[in-house]
């Protein structure tokens, strides 16, 4: 029997807005319901951002994360919960003086970016390793900041999912592994198709995979129209997969996705049509070396 493939659903992210697709969840109830629906459709991991319920802007409010986690756990499904630590790394230079942050910058000390991880102790959290131009901002994740965050994540008993956007990010990860900051069997997520990062192509996946530690578990995703082609490509090269409204708001060209569950269902069909099978949450925990936490968030 083929090894099972983990489907991660990135439920809402921080950029897609309900004005673009009404299915984008914003409130804790909407986010938790979307995560539960994705789990019922086959996602064994749900990747969670939270939003300000009034403005839909990205938020780092611990209580919003707490409510989402508790609602997911009370929903009757048991996916692995993966919280983001991405917010807090965005720098927009002032056009008059690049040394001055412009409005919209979100730079925070690394300790601030992991407070919700220390408080809620999810099974997984993302840990970005990129320094790159991202939309109108520079995403800044320095080796020092990554090391501080990694230490706090480890102390919380949480496994980091290393989000890498190009080859240099993996070289940084290798250096941090050598220094003992990260584990050799880390979970890597190859983030593909973002402008100024690695392209969503076969060649990119093959090259980035070749740089990973042999012990690493890895997955890949593509944004926008590359989402489903990268599901197939990652599976065929031995990786796990990710879909969700954070990465793509369409089910097919010109057709908005009615929700996260529909994206997961299509990803599951692609994997099965190619001869694979979908991991259950229990199998995902075994693959990732996790142990289920009982009870509500701390």
Outline the structure in words.
The chain is α/β, with parallel strands linked by helices and 298 residues long. Strand 12 (217-222), helix 8 and strand 13 (240-243) form a beta-alpha-beta unit. Helix 1 (28-41) packs parallel to helix 2 (62-73), helix 1 (28-41) runs parallel beside helix 9 (260-273) and helix 8 (227-236) runs parallel beside helix 9. The protein starts with 6 loop residues before the first strand and ends in a 10-residue tail after the last helix. It has helices spanning 28-41, 62-73, 110-113, 115-120, 143-155, 167-178, 202-211, 227-236, 260-273, 281-288; strands at residues 7-10, 45-48, 50-51, 58-59, 80-83, 90-91, 124-128, 132-134, 137-139, 159-164, 187-192, 217-222, 240-243, 250-252, 255-256. It is built from 10 helices and 15 strands. The strands form 4 sheets. An 8-stranded parallel β-barrel has the order 1-2-5-7-10-11-12-13, surrounded by 8 helices. The chain has a 3-stranded antiparallel β-sheet with strand order 6-9-8, with no helix packed on it. The protein has one domain: Aldolase class I (TIM Barrel). The radius of gyration is 18 Å and the shape is globular.
Counted up, domains total: 1
CATH topology: TIM Barrel
Measured between the Cα atoms of the first and last residue, the distance is 38 Å
Helix/strand class: alpha/beta
Number of helices: 10
**How many beta strands in the DSSP annotation?**
15
CATH superfamily, called what? Aldolase class I
Shape: globular
Let me know the largest β-sheet.
8 strands, parallel, barrel
The ordered H/E elements are: EHEEEHEEHHEEEHEHEHEHEEEHH
Classify the beta-strand content into a percent band.
Answer: 15-25%
Show unreliable segments: none
CATH-defined architecture? Alpha-Beta Barrel
- Percentage of residues in helical conformation: 25-40%
Nearest-integer average pLDDT: 94
> What is Rg?
18 Å
Please list the strands of the largest sheet in the order they lie side by side: 1-2-5-7-10-11-12-13
